[in-house]
Design goal:
The chain contains 27 helices and five strands. By secondary structure, the chain is mostly helical. It folds into five domains: about 110 residues, no CATH class; about 80 residues, no CATH class; about 110 residues, no CATH class; about 140 residues, Glutaredoxin (3-Layer(aba) Sandwich), CATH 3.40.30; about 120 residues. A five-stranded mixed β-sheet has the order 1-2-3-5-4. Helix 5 runs antiparallel to helix 6 and helix 16 crosses helix 18. The two termini are about 50 Å apart.
Length: about 650
């Protein structure tokens, strides 16, 4: 069977599900592919031009086949991907992201080797043009050669900004032609047009070298292009005071420093809640024109910090002086140049404006999260604190469908609520209904371990995102979390706006019902702790121990206990663990080992009670575990590493 026929055969289900291909159309395509193969058509030898998209697709297919228990076929796909990656590496200008694709390919090769697949002949290049004829990929586990220190390059503010303003300013600095804007350093880096350390592989350089940019007959001089490439090759570092500040288009007088913004404080009676009363208004009426990518007047209303920093005319608020604050002047439409805000919409109600003015006069107090937190997260935290359980559940479960559709917009989705759990999934409806019933039962078991009486496991309930396939979960990571799914990760908790969720890839038929219950219990527990602003490392560790307690017969509980013993050696320090800088699998296993060894299961209800009373996590942890998180974990790690068995593994 030729490659085209094989691809159609193995991806027929995906074609039917994702693109609406009917079984008849798929059969016809297979017939045509088979006929071409049978007559030996010369076009069989023609292969699609190598591209990063083709390589990614082949790696996705290899990953899926491996997780479906088909290592032989996964190896075939990986071999095809390796050929595409090698061809891309030998281009004069390899595409952006090639190094990451190659790293993923090497990771797949290592996993296949562990499964016993014969992949010794597959050579994965290093990427970024380093795979020329005769070059070898590093052996799995080999220590890479130390990287040379980057050479000092041009400075961003002094050298690069003038190049961008001179060549791109009218269309992409002060404007947003073609939906692309680089109004600040942060804005430029968010576009993905710059690949740090890879000047020639960066899209910003590619469009200049190809002549696609700048439009209208302009040309970037060789000196300007060299400055850009050298800056990117040296790491594309920022050297100014504020990476979110608008790029200067010419000499400007120094702006007045923005007023300081304090962290969250407890409100006094009569105080306006920024989280519940002000942030939602800004999100609804202002954020569309003052977002992160294309802010009118350079004013980005994405956090309290950016609001206070202001835009081209200075700070938007003056603490304690609402009458002097540009924000209030604009929404009132008095004492301003230009039009009343919000532009193109009805004016804000007078009582809403007075609430904003009162908040400013009271000193722009922040009552939840941090000045850098996105306004959407602050507003969600405000609703979580202020709404009743039932009202919050309505908002949370209604928003869950939107989170799913951000990840996988083209598929039908099933939403099933049972008790205080809402399941959102692309599984068949009957399976989702069964899963919701199971999750509701397990939620009751966990609730008895964490909270008293009939207190909700978490106010507003928990959303369980159940993905039919691993590549669906990968789409969730890319489209919702903004990064690639970590290797081997098949579930995890989190929060997105109003939605507090646990996510998992549903197991194949080989997993027992007890193991499925264990994974559901782990996700519901972790989500409940994330919903109380506990950090991910603690939530995952406590969730694993709690799941083992409520589903004691699960084989996964025993295997993960033994797995933790090996993974402790991978954690370099408590700071890495507590700071969330480790591998997610290592973090979950080691945090669970710590939690179990320190009697965490008996201490967890007391810590949850303190979190529900509004105590910050670090303070609550110190009170319950008798020390700060990093110090307590560090002491435990030191004891573990002194054990004879551990010394032999280091």
């Amino acid at each position: 069977m030729d490659f085209g026929h094989g691809l159609l055969a193995t991806r027929g289900v995906a074609l039917e599900r994702r693109w609406g291909f009917t079984p008849g159309l798929i059969a016809a395509l297979l017939s045509v592919a088979g006929a071409l193969a049978g007559v030996g058509c010369e076009c069989r030898a023609a292969e699609p031009a190598p591209s990063a998209a083709v390589a990614k697709r082949l790696l996705d297919e290899s990953d899926t086949l491996l997780e479906e228990g088909k290592p032989g076929r996964a190896g075939e796909r990986l071999a095809e991907a390796a050929g595409v990656l090698t061809a891309l590496s030998e281009l004069d200008r390899p595409p952006a992201g090639l190094r990451g694709l190659c790293e993923r390919g090497r990771g797949l090769k290592e996993r296949l080797e562990l499964e016993g697949a014969d992949v010794g002949a597959i050579e994965i290049p290093a990427g970024s043009g380093s795979s020329r004829p005769g070059a070898k990929s590093p052996r799995p586990g080999a220590t890479p050669a130390p990287a040379a220190a980057p050479a000092a390059g041009p400075g961003f503010t002094k050298d690069v900004v003038p190049v961008l303003v001179r060549n791109c300013g009218g269309c992409h600095v002060t404007g947003r032609r073609g939906e692309f804007q680089m109004a600040s350093y942060d804005g430029l880096m968010r576009t993905g047009m710059v690949q740090k350390g890879e000047g020639n592989a960066s899209r910003l350089v590619e469009v200049i070298l190809s002549g696609d940019m700048p439009r209208g007959g302009g040309k970037v001089s060789p000196a300007d292009l060299a400055t850009l490439i050298k800056w990117i090759d040296a790491g594309a570092a920022f050297d100014g005071p504020d990476p979110a500040a608008p790029l200067a288009s010419g000499p400007r007088p120094p702006a007045a420093p923005p007023p300081p913004v304090r962290g969250a404080v407890a409100l006094e009676p009569g105080d306006v809640s920024f989280a519940f009363e002000v942030a939602p208004v800004l999100l609804q009426h202002c954020a569309g024109c003052h977002d992160a990518d294309d802010p009118e007047g350079g004013l980005r209303m994405v956090s309290l910090e950016s609001l206070v920093r202001g835009g081209q005319t200075g700070p938007a608020v003056v603490p304690g002086k609402s009458a002097d604050s540009l924000l209030v002047k604009k929404v009132r439409g008095t004492g301003i140049d230009g039009q009343q805000m919000p532009l193109g919409k009805p004016p804000l109600p007078t009582d809403t404006i007075e609430i904003i003015a009162k908040w400013i006069d009271q000193g722009i107090k922040l009552d939840l999260l941090t000045p850098k937190s996105p306004l959407a997260d602050i507003a969600a935290a405000g609703r979580a604190r202020s709404l009743s359980h039932d009202d919050l559940a309505k908002a949370r479960f209604a928003a869950a469908d939107g989170v799913w559709r951000r990840a996988i917009p083209e598929e039908p989705v099933v939403v099933e609520r049972a008790g205080r759990v809402c399941v959102v999934s692309n599984l068949p409806a009957s399976r989702v209904e069964e899963l919701a019933s199971t999750a509701d039962r397990i939620e009751g078991l966990i609730r008895r371990e964490l909270v008293a009486d009939d207190t909700p496991l978490v106010k507003g309930g928990v959303v369980l995102l159940a993905f039919a396939k691993a590549y669906d979960y990968s789409d969730f990571w890319v489209n919702v979390l903004g990064e690639e799914r970590p290797k081997g990760l098949l579930g995890g908790p989190g929060a997105s706006g109003d939605v507090v969720y646990g996510a998992l890839v549903m197991p194949d038929a080989g997993q027992t019902a007890a193991d499925t219950d264990f994974r559901i219990a782990e996700q519901l527990t972790a989500a409940a702790l994330i919903g109380r602003n506990a950090p991910a490392w603690f939530a995952m560790g406590a969730a694993r121990v709690t799941a083992a307690k409520v589903v004691p017969k699960a084989a996964l509980a025993k295997s993960w206990r033994s797995d933790a013993t090996d993974r402790i050696a991978h954690v370099r320090s408590a700071t890495d663990l507590v700071g969330g800088r480790g591998d997610p699998a290592d973090t979950a296993a080691v945090a669970a080992a710590f939690f179990g060894a320190s009697g965490g299961a008996t201490k967890l209800p007391a810590l949850v009670e303190k979190l529900d009373d509004g105590v910050a996590f670090d303070t609550a942890f110190q009170q319950v575990f008798r020390g700060p998180p990093a110090a307590v974990v560090d002491g435990w790690l030191a004891r573990e590493n002194r054990k004879p068995a551990r010394r032999g593994s280091n």
